[in-house]
């Protein structure tokens, strides 16, 4: 069985600063420093590969510098992001799922995760960014999906599985050039070109920049519209410039290109007339990938979240969501030729509750039921129980 693919990590408390968006422009500091320590206590209670427990932790450290306030250079933003993960792998040892039950599940490493410079221009926060860059910090993102712990709610599995060393997402990123154009406050057009092979495949704990014409690039673009009731509507497409070996060796051609597309929406279902903070929102996402070189050719995510369901706590969310990844025809046929019978898809159902306890602590109990882990017919459905703690601190001046 192949180990789970890499996924996008958890959202940072400073994500607004990282993406160049600040809720209060007047109060934005010249320098902002943040640290988030995330810990997951996870137990696979039944099914999967075997039952057992794991303790996963993740430390995110970010530094953002406003060039105008710090150096008198209007439009300039500098950003650095350090990342530590421990080596307590969970999905590949216990439930055996490919979509990865925890979005901080990664090999042990202390690395520079992002380091970029951004120049802003135009009347609506258009910008050009260059450096080490997490694709999932801006592409394929919706706020409601970020509540959930399963990694497939960060980046759809059809995209996360791709490439020789994954795309530029958690926990390894690559050099990128990203352009964001906002012709109006509601419309955003994103486009990026990224090194096709992030990091060093021979040294997975290193952050390495190795540009090679043979490795090619990953190109991705997204068009998004945002509003009030309809929070976000977006569509994106991606393609690698270099071909990959085909999965199905019976095909006449030996190589094929890896490409795909996705669409997502997030919208308001209900808002309490007595409090705008108390609301119900929903999301839906679907993605496709070429099945000639990718094991899974489609993934779908949908869910509902309820803000402040039981109290008026500043940050309290209850949510339920489902995510599926469908096995591609080429991969299914190639496995059948070796005598392996696969299920059509892996499915994860997640029930979660997230609440801020203090200014520096959030707690999140979580339940996941994983059907057909790795689409392996020999594995029983897995039940995963989890408890997440997030410790946050930030300073600015």
TrEMBL record:
Molecular function per GO: porin activity
Coiled coil: none
Biological-process GO terms, alphabetical: carbohydrate transport
Gene Ontology cellular-component terms listed: membrane
InterPro entries tied to this protein: Carb-sel_porin_OprB, OprB_Porin, OprB_sf
Signal peptide extent: none
Entry's family note: Belongs to the OprB family.
PANTHER family xref list: PORIN B
Stated name of the protein: Porin
Organism, scientific name: Povalibacter uvarum
